[in-house]
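Could you join me in thinking about how sequence relates to backbone shape in a protein? We need material for that, and I hope you will provide a protein of your own picking. Label the sequence line and the structure token line clearly, so we can match residues to local backbone shapes. Would you write everything just below, so we can both look at the same thing?
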Amino acid sequence: MGVMRFVVPQCESLSDWPEVYRAYASGLDRSVWPTRVEFDGQNIICRRQNSESSRLHVAWPVDGFGRPVLATAMLPERETPYVLAVELARGKIVQVRNLRAELSGSDLTLPAEYHEHYAQAHREFGQAASSQDNVVEATAAAKRAIHHACHAAELLAYAYSQQYLESRHQQYDKLPTSLGCRLDTELFGPAAQELFCSAFNSAAVPVEWQIVEPIEGEADWTTLDAQVEWCLENRLVMRGGPLFDLSPRGMPKWLWEWEQDFWNLQSFVCDFVETAVSRYTGKIRIWELAACANSGGALMLSEEQRLTLVAKTLEVARHIDEEAQFAIRIDQPWGEYQARGQHRLSPLHFADALVRAGLGLSALNLEIAVGYRPRGTPSRDLLEFSSMIDRWCALGIPLQITLAFPSGDDPDPLAEDDLEVDEPSWKQPWTPTAQAQWFDTLLPLLIAKPAVAAVYWSQFSDASPHTFPHSGLVAPDGTPKPILEHMIEYRREHLK
């Protein structure tokens, strides 16, 4: 077993810093390794299954940026503990430098403020690196370097997204990207219908097994049929699904009695997929076949069984409607869940196996749910989001993005009871205003990337049962949150 040690002076607020125990290590290709993190009163100890060089990823407090996940550069094992803040500063500066080098031939215009922050980050890092015999002094200088490096990273990513967005608009007056939202499990009233059609050109119709057939043999398609007709009337691009959801509470309860009989279980799933796709052939042309198959949790299926199930259902669905497009949803696309040691394949490798199988997978839907535990995505800066999207682009098929972000942290009785809002980690506490600002930060980057074909929000209203607490665009009393008006403006300015 490999061991790496990092020193943090005077415990550096570890008493109110639970994120340190969620830290993890990754390799050269950024695949996450099974990791156990301990604290012995002086050092953070990171234990892995091998002794290769690795990065440590940890949520680190940065003034003005909350607690984003930062990563060290690749580090070899050594007896002397690393000063954690120094290595995080080194990693962030290297990341900014590398992306700037990649964009050097693109005529990217950067503001003077970027150069000031980047130069100051180097100066502070030089002081930190040269004073590591004094951990307190080195950490203080490294924290200043991280602060400036994060500012430089944000300015670089912002300039990239704005200028590439302008470049796309030179080709398209209105971008062909879909902006959509999941429909509620109940039909909309007139006011909600008007808001939805003003904000979105696409809709995710919840053709989900758990909704359609909560009791075995008693399927009810009434609401879904009405939603499909409403979308057709309003000329909304439809995406149906996910037909089955392999997250811990994503499958019908009655199906659990078959979890030990995989082949009969597969038959049940294929029958539902065949029924759903047949029912809406010619109406729904884009399907989200499966959700959370990479991380799993439902029915205690192994990784191999989840891959087999997705591949088989994709084959069945393609046979029913050869003209339709089929996607799968990948949750936690950075792969943090691998740190628990229960998964062999990274999210990217899981998806790559299906792409290489030649079964006709049309797109990948990346779920980015910031601010939730245990299966959400930790907060990261815009540069990290950009780098992650670019890594997924390497698979060569279109990407869809599903977003969720909480507008509050009080109890949400209509959300799934196995999910809760995490401690604040973005720039601001969880509020409706923060939700809108996070969306404003991320959407221009996403629609600036040609590989991103669609962006969806996870839930329309908090008054309807939903997965992520306080993730809706409309409050339980029917009042639109600020984010909804922002979406309407983005669609009016950028999208069809």
User: Anything to note?
Assistant: DSSP finds twelve helices and 19 strands in the chain.
